[in-house]
Design brief:
By secondary structure, this protein is mainly alpha-helical. About 70% of the residues lie in helices and about 0% in strands. It has one domain (about 5-75). It has helices at about 5, 10-25, 35-50, 60-70.
């Protein structure tokens, strides 16, 4: 098994995380042509959505997506 901590740079990890987030947004119903806008909105709202939330783990992601579907329906199919 590789020791990824010493082999993957922060830039590479950030890139992979961005791709995973874009994929998650697409499969949650975001229109493909609006993925970058949805990504920006996701980053903008995540702290506010979770500030008073009891969600943890994957439920945090679900809470943010639910919020986005209600607040930005134009981004979704």
């Amino acid at each position: 098994m590789k020791n990824y901590e010493n082999e993957i740079t922060l830039e590479e990890m950030s890139y992979e995380l961005e791709l995973a987030t874009l994929g998650m947004l697409y499969y949650s119903g975001v229109k493909k042509e609006l993925l970058n806008e949805a990504f920006d909105r996701y980053i903008e709202v995540i702290d506010d959505v979770l500030e008073n939330s009891n969600a943890s783990g994957v439920d945090e992601v679900i809470a943010v997506i639910d919020h986005m579907k209600k607040s930005y329906p134009e981004l979704f199919k």
